[in-house]
Design goal:
The protein has helices at 7-20, 28-40, 44-53, 56-61, 63-76, 80-87, 96-117, 123-130, 134-143, 172-187, and strands spanning 121-122, 147-151, 154-158. By secondary structure, it is mainly α. A hairpin with a 2-residue loop joins strand 2 (147-151) and strand 3. Helix 1 (7-20) runs antiparallel to helix 2 (28-40) and helix 5 (63-76) packs antiparallel against helix 6 (80-87). Belongs to the CSN8 family.
């Protein structure tokens, strides 16, 4: 299993392997793992470009590749309920840890969004957004020290906003370097 901090180096290695394949087509496992890692890293633009680069014959011969892309499409559309359903397939041993990590990442993103966007939320809706049972969602809310209150319409979760962190100020040179890197990426 690849640890999360190592994903960037694995992505670079797979990108180089794709670019440097001179004899025959790129092996399908390279495409599968690279696509899964792009989706896991929430780099959906690169995932989409990779999907367009993959030959149709490879797409047709590998159902797992289609399943990975289906997860990416659901995330692109911000349809987390369908993303959880798309993740609920049998993955190969090479892809399974990446997709399990992705499921944890999606839940962490949902919890963060809920804590920032809601002062109260229906417990059942919160559970559905995490693809958890009400009991599991209650446990998650308690772990985050969120209050759960009874109302006439049902139980509600009262998320606690995380402390506001001020964005780091970057120098103009850093911003210019990032812009230059982005433009050169678009041109190449």
């Amino acid at each position: 299993m690849v640890n999360a901090p190592d994903y960037e180096s694995v992505i670079k290695k797979l990108e180089n392997e794709e670019l440097n394949t001179t004899v025959g087509p790129v092996p399908c496992p390279v495409y599968s793992k690279l696509l899964a890692l792009y989706v896991q890293q929430n780099d959906l633009c690169n995932a989409k470009f990779l999907w367009k680069r993959i030959p149709d014959s490879v797409k047709q011969s590998n159902p797992e590749l289609k399943s990975i892309w289906n997860v990416g499409v659901q995330l692109w559309n911000r349809n987390f309920t369908d993303a959880y359903a798309a993740l609920n397939v049998e993955w190969s041993p090479e892809i399974a840890p990446i997709m399990q990590n992705l499921q944890h990442e999606i839940r962490a993103r949902v919890i963060k969004v809920v804590s920032l966007a809601y002062s109260t939320m229906d417990l059942e809706a919160f559970a559905k957004s995490l693809n958890y049972s009400v009991e599991e969602a209650t446990r998650v809310a308690q772990e985050h020290k969120w209050e759960i209150i009874d109302t006439p319409s049902g139980k509600m979760v009262c998320p606690v906003r995380p402390p506001y962190s001020y964005a780091q100020v970057t120098s103009n040179e850093d911003q210019l370097a990032k812009l230059t890197e982005f433009v050169s990426f678009l041109e190449n």
